[in-house]
Amino acid sequence: MLRHLVNGAVGGALATAAMSTVMVAGQRAGLMRDQPPKRIVRAILPGHPRKPKPGEGVLGTAAHFAFGIGSGALFGVLTRGRGRVPLGVLYGLAIWYGSYAGWVPKLTTMPPAHRDRPGRQAVMAAGHVVYGLALANALTRLGRRAAEAA
After folding, report:
1. Separation between Cα atoms, residue 111 and residue 11, nearest integer Å
2. For 50-74, how does the pLDDT look when each residue is reduced to its tens digit (9 = 90+)?
3. Is 7 within 8 Å of 143 (Cβ atoms)?
4. Which segments cross the bilayer (predicted)?
5. Secondary structure (DSSP) of 68-134
């Protein structure tokens, strides 16, 4: 179980990096103004939830990776380290939906997905698909390495 947890956490870190690439590309393409993790941190930090705060970019990135690593660790344990691509994609989309139709709007930093700017939610949904794909592939590769080492 510990191996699945650790492999999932490593996979979650790699998957978050892949997802972040999609998010940065979406921002550069003009589909979203700034990164949602940064906006979420802005809402959580003391002060006005919509006014920029010092360090929010770094804290947003750290929080995003922490969430991605934790989610990857959970996936690794739940799937017993079996990185099945369809399950990874569904997992990524479930995280997107649960976040952007659930707890993120409650912070009042962003509207629910169905009322948000279509470009941002398209980027975020695509990013979460990439997260799920990368997570499943990482778990598959890490599982193969463990089996070869045994």
Report:
1. 30
2. 777 788 889 999 999 999 999 999 9
3. yes
4. 58-78, 85-103, 123-140
5. HHHHHHHHHHHTTT---HHHHHHHHHHHHHHIIIIIHHHTTSS--GGGS-HHHHHHHHHHHHHHHHH
d(CA 28, CA 48): 26
Supply 118's token pair. Answer: 């279509």
Q: What angle do CA 67, 69, 74 make, to 5 degrees?
A: 95
3-state SS assignment for residue 141: helix
pLDDT in tens, 84-123: 899 999 999 999 999 999 999 988 778 898 898 889 899 9
Q: Do residues 128 and 19 lie in contact, with contact meaning Cβ atoms separated by under 8 Å?
A: yes
Q: Give the CA-trace dihedral at 22, 36, 133, 18, to 10 degrees.
A: 50
Instruction: Identify which of 23, 140, 124 has the alpha carbon closest to the alpha carbon of residue 75.
Output: 140
Neighbours of 4 (CB within 10 A): 21
- SS3 call for 1: coil
- Helices 56-78, 36-44: axis angle to 10 degrees equals 110
d(C-alpha 60, C-alpha 56), whole Å: 6
